[in-house]
What we know:
Blueprint: H1 3-8, E1 13-19, E2 29-35, E3 40-46, H2 64-68, E4 78-80, E5 89-91, H3 94-112, E6 117-121, H4 129-142, E7 146-148, H5 154-164, E8 180-184, H6 188-191, H7 196-204, E9 208-213, H8 218-222, E10 225-228, H9 234-247, H10 253-259, E11 260-261, H11 263-270, H12 275-282, H13 286-298, E12 302-306, H14 316-323, H15 326-330, E13 339-341, H16 353-356, E14 368-370, H17 374-377, H18 382-387, E15 410-414, H19 418-421, H20 425-432, E16 438-443, E17 455-458, E18 467-469, E19 476-480, H21 493-503, H22 515-524, H23 536-542, E20 544-546, E21 568-569, H24 573-577, H25 597-602, E22 606-609, H26 625-631, E23 635-638, H27 640-645, E24 653-657, E25 662-669, E26 677-679, E27 716-721
Parallel strand pairs: 6-15, 7-14, 8-9, 8-12, 9-10, 11-21, 12-13, 15-16, 16-17, 22-26, 23-25
Antiparallel strand pairs: 1-2, 2-3, 4-5, 4-17, 18-19, 19-20, 22-27, 24-25, 24-27
Helix pairs in contact: 3-21, 4-21, 5-14, 9-12, 9-13, 9-14, 12-13
The structure holds ligand MGD (2 copies), iron/sulfur cluster and molybdenum atom.
Amino acid sequence: MRKHETYAQQPHIRIITGACPHDCPDTCAWQIAVDERTGRAVDIWGHPDHPITRGRLCGKVERYLDRVYHPERLTRPLKRVGPKGSGQFVPVSWDEAIADIAARLQQIIAEYGAEAVLPYSYAGTMGLLQGEGMASRFFNRMGASRLARTICATAGFEGLTYTLGAALATDTEAFAKARFILIWGSNTLTSNMHLWPFVQEARANGARVIVIDPARTRTARAADEWIAINPGTDGVLALAMMHVIIRDALYDADYVARATVGFDRLVARVRDWTPERAETITGVPAARIERLAHEYATTRPAAIRINYGLQRHAGGGMTVRTIACLPALVGAWRDEGGGLQLSTSGAFRFNRNVLERPDLLQGREPRTINMIRLGDALSLDPARLAQAHYRPRPVDPPVRPEEAGPPVKALIVYNSNPAAVAPHQQAVLEGLRREDLFTVVLEHFQTDTADYADYILPATTQAEHWDIVKPYGHYYLMLNRPAIAPLGESLPNSEIFRRLAQAMGYTEACFTQSDEEILREFVEAQTDPVFEGITWERLVRDGWARLNLPQPFVPFADGRFPTPSGKCELYSERMAEDGYDPLPTWTPPATRRNADAATVWQQGWLFCISPPAHSFLNTTFVNVERLRRREGEPSLWIHPDDAAARGIREGALVRVWNERGEVHLRAHLTEDIVHGTVLAPSIWWNKLSPDGRNINQVTPAEESDMGGGARFYDVLVRVEPLAVASEEPESTQQAVSLA
Ligand SMILES: Nc1nc2c(c(=O)[nH]1)N[C@H]1C(S)=C(S)[C@@H](COP(=O)(O)OP(=O)(O)OC[C@H]3O[C@@H](n4cnc5c(=O)[nH]c(N)nc54)[C@H](O)[C@@H]3O)O[C@H]1N2
Ligand SMILES: Nc1nc2c(c(=O)[nH]1)N[C@H]1C(S)=C(S)[C@@H](COP(=O)(O)OP(=O)(O)OC[C@H]3O[C@@H](n4cnc5c(=O)[nH]c(N)nc54)[C@H](O)[C@@H]3O)O[C@H]1N2
Ligand code: SF4
Ligand SMILES: [Mo]
């Protein structure tokens, strides 16, 4: 008997349906069993009826209750007593904390203006309410600095949008119909496991599955074939595939004529991108590129799953833009089970104004800070602060230091752990250590970031609050109901901002609405046809609702794209206007800009990527002991040849460093990573790492090409046995500049 059936027979057990809040494409529907005698949640499982969840949660969220009831869960507001970063706090009452925080913020606003307050958040919860819902009302009313939430996906998202017009994608269920599946820069079994059953179904019907990745991930092992590629070179592979497809007339002339613009110019562009040339850059043998292009163009339906892993490079936006041209070229969008999936989020055409209330800005236009530049944003040097301003496109003018605005004097962090996840960690920590910076952190746990707070405010988890979650890996809108009462004195983010708003003297009615009222109003305010028939009552009853889209949803079968031209833009006028090459091209990683890979390697550098560890979700779950034990310890995958050249043996502690910082990791020698690249499964907590640091010691805070996106995987490091003393990191002035 399955869990829900077993529990349904126990009179004291209540079963509540909710939605996983995590930053994961799958946005699962879950069920939680609560013992009504104690009010305690006793079990959690995947909802058996949800079409994507299909009764299964991942190994992390199966342990969700360990996290909810973790002995170190924050249950009372805490006020700092020791020096910044020492992690010493005493409990205080909510009234005292809220009153003091409001007074400090008022003081800062009076002296420096509201832009001196910076909210900092990301996707600790993907819920619309506990995410930016009440928080943006609060910060809009205040006129605080705005935050560009770029740390994950903006480069690829922009690249995709230039090409297709919106983040629409092959339906997840439709992957079962594909006969050729290219998993490109995605570790599906780790970061998107609910796609896999559809991939398996396709294979049972004869589909071939190929993974393109610098690492032989568990997904690459499970697939039919692994194509090993040098990081940051996927654009080259795509250009060479287009070269072959056009040269051998394998493209879909009818679809191209009907549904694309710029084909002739694309033909001229890819003429020089021969497989032989591509081999020297990508490391993929020319013959393999030929075969890949033929298989892709001649097997139907053909689906591509790309994820955000391949766009964490200086050319990440252009890479996604280039790959996104492939399905139109071969007409793959015609078929159910053909096309491409990066994100389904573009289908959720929400009107968010009723939720986030931009009208509360009342015409003010506060500066926007790019979140990946947190170290610069917290600097008291106006030149660095100016660099932290959000400039998503090349045509956006640089900000002069005298235009940078006030220094950041207050930082309010929620749903994020920047001391561990943000790049250029030393700069971030230096900022967080400022004694004159007033920092408030809303959290479940005393994270690396919370250690630097003046106040830590205990927040509820998804088991304890209401929300609506918008997925990016399927087309079902999800409702989360609370299963249990808040633990200790913890409060939902929404309630914390509600109380802060009242203490600040914000009297608008939107600061007194309850969570359910807000969500109901939000659902009822949606007018786009995709929400037709989706009511609050229906969400409460069922827990989810498929968008009002045809099933199957084959987004571009008719050849119409929501771009300015109405077609798939192989040539994009809008890109030209924004300062980009209007045609697909290769924008090399910053680490290859000044020298080719061979030179980089000769000088002793290695490329370094740090994709998701299987048992963590970013830094969430690192403190759940069972999951941390399963992950082992912070490690570095290194090719045996690269290890031998450095005298590194299996299991040795190594020093991984560059001019930004260093971290100590345990070497794991393996041919599962391409030669010349190292891989550090991430993201560990600093304080749960043996040397108190993580891989973001070495990652750069500079932007990628589009959307101000992050460049986590575009970095060079030196690796050496820890025992060997060495010279200090060299400066960027040498032949190869770090990026
Ligand atoms: N278990 C787990 N699941 C997660 C997360 C997690 O931390 N843990 N994180 C979540 C988040 S925030 C996100 S954004 C999503 C997606 O997060 P992504 O970062 O897209 O994660 P992956 O799907 O693991 O894909 C990354 C893969 O891309 C490969 N890669 C790195 N650089 C390149 C490159 O230049 N080219 C190619 N072809 N491949 C490259 C890596 O080796 C890795 O296998 O996953 C989410 N799901
Ligand atoms: N080196 C390296 N760095 C990376 C990446 C990488 O691949 N390599 N990946 C990047 C990517 S893709 C992303 S998305 C970012 C992720 O960065 P973050 O979004 O900061 O992700 P988490 O580390 O999971 O931190 C989320 C925090 O929010 C808290 N939280 C969760 N729910 C709630 C809530 O309801 N209320 C409150 N107040 N807090 C809550 C959790 O306890 C957790 O500490 O990291 C980026 N950093
Ligand atoms: S993290 Fe992803 S796979 Fe795991 S339960 Fe949540 S949505 Fe599902
Ligand atoms: Mo992410």
